[in-house]
């Protein structure tokens, strides 16, 4: 900006962005009106285009527009002056004893005239030390004088006749480094950088006379790392220079930012750890719920003791694999493991659907219960559904010995039990009572591929009206060791008859006892029961159905038939009533439940 003799101002606008000079007109008018209460007129005098060599990289085009700023003699200034005069008079009137206030002191300060000494009281040596960052150069931009700090940054400047262009680069403003351009931007902030170290120096240029200028500056540093990179020290900066405080404050701010950044990283890591911990907790709870019922597991997690409970009526199921001993003898152990894992995975998938609890597996034995630890009213129906699913699932698994579908025996019984957690290390939820033993007897006295129901389970299903949903077939009277004679049933299917579960209708003891049955059939059934008791009676009056190993044709094949004596007479229940020395083989022959063999 330049002052003219006619009272106008010449304003130079230089920008690398072309076409924005109309904005300058509005900005300057607003500044004059809001800050100085001056209404002015701005007109474009000339518009030039300049090529600027920036940092010796290349030529850059700049838009140079020259404006003339003229103050308007309108009522704006007059009104402001009148208002100010009235305000000043009012304040002077309100001031007692004719005392003056701050307003009059400020008004008098406008007439201040500084006093200059006749000679300097500082020699050049002390001046260069007191002001270490200054440069005095002439019209040719040759360095006439420099401070000690500048000389340390750029030792080449100490040589006689050294040039400002040879040792420094003008970073700001973006103009060519010439005397005339510097004079034009004398009121701007100048930033020079040392060519060798790229150390920026920020300051202002003062016109000393028509032949010399003074550039007084300070290093443009922001933190201690830049000081170390430039091999500079904090003590090299004058105490009066605010750059010291700027570096220290910025260093403190960076330290706070670093701490905040680490805190954010720690918080994020903590969140990730919390999520991972939650996932592991869910996995642990899942595994715990596989070992113990959810109700019992939650009590143990809360540190509570789990007392044994008595349940009035539950239904227990046992199952085992037919000829498992022969299969295990004919195969590698890893094949047995794969077979059992495949089979039990199918069984386990049905437990959740049927609302039963898997108690344990020992070898080929599989045990489930319904009604514990949560009381279930339809416990017998739940276990029946599980039994049907298990028989179907077993038929989908092949034996590694024969390649044929597996067969399982299933036995069920309902009654009271006591349940609780046993042990502190590897605790298990166990069931105790005669119901468990009876359910095991139903399984051991069962027939391959059949679901054997005790009388108590059958009655529990009848009480709940399950006769219309399930299909049963009476087995008749069966002498069970330790239990006496029991009238058991087979569960044939649900909703519709399942061919794979239908027993041999030719066997008299498995005939369905429908109301339409003839008296002769009923009599045959009664005689069958009597013959079973008589033929199976021993010294103690009790008989046990035991298992005889099946004769093997080879390691991979199991005999499907057992030779019987043609002279042997079979009673209707399939056991020799005339000979007590007989056993019932647990392997059926084409649907028959048992085959007698003389011992």
Automatic annotation (TrEMBL):
<feature type="compositionally biased region" description="Polar residues">
    <location>
        <begin position="563"/>
        <end position="582"/>
    </location>
</feature>
<dbReference type="InterPro" id="IPR042463">
    <property type="entry name" value="HNOB_dom_associated_sf"/>
</dbReference>
<dbReference type="GO" id="GO:0008074">
    <property type="term" value="C:guanylate cyclase complex, soluble"/>
</dbReference>
<protein>
    <recommendedName>
        <fullName>guanylate cyclase</fullName>
        <ecNumber>4.6.1.2</ecNumber>
    </recommendedName>
</protein>
<dbReference type="InterPro" id="IPR001054">
    <property type="entry name" value="A/G_cyclase"/>
</dbReference>
<dbReference type="InterPro" id="IPR024096">
    <property type="entry name" value="NO_sig/Golgi_transp_ligand-bd"/>
</dbReference>
<feature type="compositionally biased region" description="Polar residues">
    <location>
        <begin position="544"/>
        <end position="556"/>
    </location>
</feature>
<dbReference type="GO" id="GO:0019934">
    <property type="term" value="P:cGMP-mediated signaling"/>
</dbReference>
<keyword id="KW-0963">Cytoplasm</keyword>
<keyword id="KW-0141">cGMP biosynthesis</keyword>
<dbReference type="GO" id="GO:0004383">
    <property type="term" value="F:guanylate cyclase activity"/>
</dbReference>
<dbReference type="GO" id="GO:0070482">
    <property type="term" value="P:response to oxygen levels"/>
</dbReference>
<keyword id="KW-0456">Lyase</keyword>
<feature type="domain" description="Guanylate cyclase">
    <location>
        <begin position="315"/>
        <end position="443"/>
    </location>
</feature>
<keyword id="KW-0342">GTP-binding</keyword>
<dbReference type="InterPro" id="IPR011645">
    <property type="entry name" value="HNOB_dom_associated"/>
</dbReference>
<feature type="region of interest" description="Disordered">
    <location>
        <begin position="511"/>
        <end position="582"/>
    </location>
</feature>
<keyword id="KW-0547">Nucleotide-binding</keyword>
<dbReference type="InterPro" id="IPR038158">
    <property type="entry name" value="H-NOX_domain_sf"/>
</dbReference>
<dbReference type="Pfam" id="PF00211">
    <property type="entry name" value="Guanylate_cyc"/>
</dbReference>
<dbReference type="Pfam" id="PF07700">
    <property type="entry name" value="HNOB"/>
</dbReference>
<feature type="region of interest" description="Disordered">
    <location>
        <begin position="76"/>
        <end position="102"/>
    </location>
</feature>
<comment type="similarity">
    <text>Belongs to the adenylyl cyclase class-4/guanylyl cyclase family.</text>
</comment>
<feature type="compositionally biased region" description="Low complexity">
    <location>
        <begin position="76"/>
        <end position="95"/>
    </location>
</feature>
<dbReference type="GO" id="GO:0020037">
    <property type="term" value="F:heme binding"/>
</dbReference>
<dbReference type="GO" id="GO:0005525">
    <property type="term" value="F:GTP binding"/>
</dbReference>
<dbReference type="InterPro" id="IPR018297">
    <property type="entry name" value="A/G_cyclase_CS"/>
</dbReference>
<dbReference type="InterPro" id="IPR029787">
    <property type="entry name" value="Nucleotide_cyclase"/>
</dbReference>
<dbReference type="Pfam" id="PF07701">
    <property type="entry name" value="HNOBA"/>
</dbReference>
<dbReference type="InterPro" id="IPR011644">
    <property type="entry name" value="Heme_NO-bd"/>
</dbReference>
């Amino acid at each position: 900006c330049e002052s003219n003799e006619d009272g106008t101002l010449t304003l130079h606008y230089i920008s690398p962005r072309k076409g924005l000079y109309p904005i300058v007109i509005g900005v300057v008018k607003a500044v004059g009106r809001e800050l100085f209460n001056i209404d002015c007129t701005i007109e474009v005098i000339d518009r030039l285009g300049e090529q600027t060599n920036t940092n010796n990289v290349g030529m850059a085009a700049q838009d140079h527009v020259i404006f003339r700023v003229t103050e308007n003699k309108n009522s704006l200034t007059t009104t402001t002056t009148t208002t100010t005069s009235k305000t000043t008079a009012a304040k002077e009137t309100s001031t007692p004893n004719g005392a003056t206030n701050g307003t009059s002191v400020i008004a008098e300060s406008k007439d201040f005239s500084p006093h200059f000494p006749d000679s300097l009281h500082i020699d050049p040596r002390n001046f260069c030390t007191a002001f270490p960052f200054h440069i005095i150069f002439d019209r040719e931009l040759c360095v006439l004088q420099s401070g000690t700090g500048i000389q340390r940054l750029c030792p080449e400047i100490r040589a006689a006749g050294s040039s400002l262009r040879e040792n420094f680069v003008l970073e700001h403003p973006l103009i060519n480094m010439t005397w005339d351009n510097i004079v034009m931007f004398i009121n701007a902030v100048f930033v020079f950088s040392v060519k060798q170290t790229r150390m920026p120096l920020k300051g202002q240029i003062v016109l000393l006379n028509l032949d010399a200028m003074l550039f007084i500056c300070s290093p443009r540093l922001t933190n201690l790392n830049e000081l170390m990179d430039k091999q500079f020290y904090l003590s090299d900066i004058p105490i009066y220079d605010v750059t010291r405080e700027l570096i220290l404050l910025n260093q403190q701010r960076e330290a706070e930012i670093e701490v905040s950044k680490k805190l954010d990283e720690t918080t994020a890591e903590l969140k990730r750890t919390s999520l991972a911990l939650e996932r592991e907790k869910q996995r642990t709870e899942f595994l715990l719920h596989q070992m113990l019922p959810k109700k019992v597991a939650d009590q143990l997690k809360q540190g509570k003791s789990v007392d044994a409970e008595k349940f009035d009526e539950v239904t227990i199921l046992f199952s085992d694999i037919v000829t498992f001993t022969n299969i295990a003898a004919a195969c590698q152990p890893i094949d047995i493991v794969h077979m059992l894992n495949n089979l039990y995975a199918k069984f386990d998938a049905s437990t959740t659907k049927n609302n039963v609890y898997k108690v344990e597996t020992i070898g080929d034995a599989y045990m489930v219960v319904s009604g514990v630890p949560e009381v279930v009213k339809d416990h017998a129906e739940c276990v029946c559904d599980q039994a049907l699913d298990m028989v179907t699932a077993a038929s989908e698994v092949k034996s590694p010995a024969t390649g044929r579908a597996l067969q399982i025996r299933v036995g069920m019984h309902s009654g009271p039990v006591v349940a609780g957690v046993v042990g502190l290390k590897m605790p298990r939820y166990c069931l105790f009572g005669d119901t468990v033993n009876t359910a095991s007897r139903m399984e051991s006295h069962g027939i391959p591929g059949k679901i054997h129901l005790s009388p108590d389970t059958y009655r529990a299903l009848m009480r709940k009206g399950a006769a219309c949903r399930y299909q049963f077939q009476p087995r008749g009277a069966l002498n069970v060791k330790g239990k006496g004679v029991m009238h058991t049933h087979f569960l044939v299917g649900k909703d519709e008859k399942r061919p794979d579960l239908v027993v041999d209708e030719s066997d008299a003891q498995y005939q369905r006892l429908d109301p339409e049955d003839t008296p002769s059939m009923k009599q045959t059934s009664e005689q069958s029961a009597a013959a079973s008791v008589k033929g199976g009676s021993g010294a103690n009056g009790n008989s046990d159905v035991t298992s005889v190993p099946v004769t093997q044709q080879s390691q991979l094949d199991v005999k499907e038939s057992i030779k019987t004596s043609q002279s042997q007479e079979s009673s209707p229940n399939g056991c020799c009533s005339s000979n007590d020395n007989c056993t019932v083989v647990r392997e059926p022959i084409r649907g028959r439940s048992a085959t007698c063999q003389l011992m």
